[in-house]
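Protein modeling request. Please complete all fields; requests missing the sequence field cannot be processed.
Requester role: graduate student
Desired output: 3D structure, token encoding
Chains: 1
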Amino acid sequence: MNEALETLKERGFFAQCTDVESLSKKMDEGPITFYVGCDPTGPSLHIGHMVPFFALRHLREYGHHGIALIGGGTARIGDPSGKTEMRKMISYEQIDDNVKHIEAQLNKFIGFDNKTAFSDNNKNWLADLNYIDFLRDIGSCFSVNKMLTFEAYKQRLERGLSFIEFNYQLLQAYDFYMLHQRHGCVLQIGGDDQWGNITAGVDLIRRKCGGTTELNKEHEVWGLTFPLITRADGKKMGKTEKGAIFLDPALTSVFDFFQYWRNVADADVRKFFLLFTFLPVSEIDTICKGNINDAKERLAYEVTQIIHGKEEADKALSGAKAAFSGEGDKSHMPTVELSKSLFENGIAVTDLYFEAKLCATKSDARRLIQQGGAVVNEKPVSDVKDVIKLSDADTDGEFVVRAGKKKFVRVTLK
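Delivered output (414 residues):
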């Protein structure tokens, strides 16, 4: 197998391929152009979106050329794959604004040079399509019976599939066809829930360009998918009780981003090192053979550094050390500023947890205390009637307030 494909397989980026032998041979002959797409249905990517973009960077390292396709056109419809209900429609203006944010995030991660890696937007060819012409030229290449065999549609048919969503597969297939025409793209990569859409694009190009004949090998194209990434507990990777882990620090703070990786299950550490870092496999294996908590801290640091940069990763690491081991710098911990007057006569501990936003309600704070999960400046709080005073502050005149083992905040006074 081609060395680049071997690397993808070794690191966990391999589920299905339309024809791995011929793709391997094609890649041995020289650089190919491939693409991965994402729809700008929100203002930020989350970490689950990033799996194929990590694969893009691996392929780029082997000399292949990657296209990051941002679906400014397909986002107007919404992909039904992996969804239990129809996406909420958003305005065209919001989609265009999301495109700008996501393109900037991908540029930071990939580094577009417009040669070995660049972005495109399917709005460029989808926004002004003539529907009748599209149905005649592209719709005629699709079998409804075959489309209904794909898992994405079978699942949605049980709950209800709108006609607008049913068109999505045609549009994604058309994207592949257009990128093949515009840029010589011969491979689409993505999550395994995209298998039906990807193979539809492969079939469309073969039908339109004759890629199945020996005389038209230049139009031969492939699809490659990755396993859908789940955690050891079976839940979707990149999700927490607060929601998705976003790349935008305004939506997920860098510290919370760091802590997500620091707190992954032991069983997930090696898998996530392989998928979400670029460390050599041999180094990953050495790290994972050592202390598991050290390995998790290294994982958190590496991923945070890749997404947010070394300076932010250093701050997050320092804040975590200050919170959990008394080392590091407290100024890098999550911080809430409260009025000094609240503490002058004493603040009820339940009010403190509520004001510090560690508990959504005072009832939640009471339950936390009763269950033994409340700690203020390393002192456990066991009585819901306790009052916290200025004299309870640490030597810096601050409070470190904990909720359980993983949630905490530094409280400063103004």
